[in-house]
Write a structure and sequence with these properties.
Layout (H helix, E strand, L loop, with lengths): L1 H24 L4 E11 L4 E6 L4 E5 L5 E4 L7 E3 L2 H4 L7 E7 L6 E7 L6 E11 L4 E6 L4 E5 L5 E4 L2 E4 L10 E9 L2 E9 L1
Parallel strand pairs: 4-7, 10-14, 11-14
Antiparallel strand pairs: 1-2, 1-6, 2-3, 4-5, 6-7, 8-9, 8-13, 9-10, 11-12, 13-14
């Protein structure tokens, strides 16, 4: 009887260990923002020049989704990266991806067109948790307030999270990729520098 209890406890511990290791094995999703520089249909890659000036290359698959973020419905289409971006070099995008180095695979590419996505840099000066806004003193000396909505993402040390769930900290140096609507500036990608 005692031996049976020990064996069953051992099975429970092994099960918990397996679940924990499988959770750790899941790919962490990151994000990058920039401009489409090239689409290689043969190699199944897209090049994106980031605002930091580096060119990132992302693999894409039939499971990579593309979303035209200028459309009201924001519907995503899978398996259309090469045809969707053909001739659209210069489009501003936010790419969500897994992997590192040369093995980055795009999971979702949000297209904002050539003019819609804007970029700001500065230091966080205030956070309104209730209103989901963050105030930033820009590098040019002005002050701007941004809404942290559900559609935007924030790059953290642990991957991306929805902007509406992120709590910025005063004093953080940040780069913000945003769009504007009748309510003001809306975060699409937010990253601590």
């Amino acid at each position: 009887m005692i031996r049976g209890k020990v064996v069953s406890k051992l099975f429970v511990l092994v099960g918990i260990a397996l679940l924990a290791s499988s959770a750790l094995a899941q790919d962490v999703v990151h994000a990058a923002a920039g401009v489409i520089t090239r689409v290689d249909k043969t190699g199944k890659t897209i090049g994106v020049k980031t605002t930091e000036g580096a060119e990132e290359v992302f693999n894409y698959t039939e499971h990579t989704a593309v979303r035209d973020s200028r459309e009201v419905a924001h519907s995503a289409k899978m398996g259309v990266v090469d045809t969707y971006f053909a001739g659209k070099e210069g489009s501003r995008v936010v790419v969500r991806y897994t992997g590192k180095g040369a093995e980055k695979t795009a999971t979702l590419v949000d297209d904002f067109g050539k003019e819609t996505l804007k970029t700001g840099r500065g230091t966080v000066t205030g956070v309104d948790k209730a209103a989901h806004t963050v105030a930033v003193k820009t590098d040019s000396g002005g002050e701007a307030t941004y809404r942290l909505g559900n559609e935007g993402v924030v790059e953290t040390d642990h991957g991306v999270v929805r902007a509406s769930r992120y709590i910025a900290k005063e004093g953080d140096k940040v780069i913000i990729h945003y769009t504007e609507d009748e309510g003001g500036k809306v975060v699409r990608f937010f990253k601590k520098l």
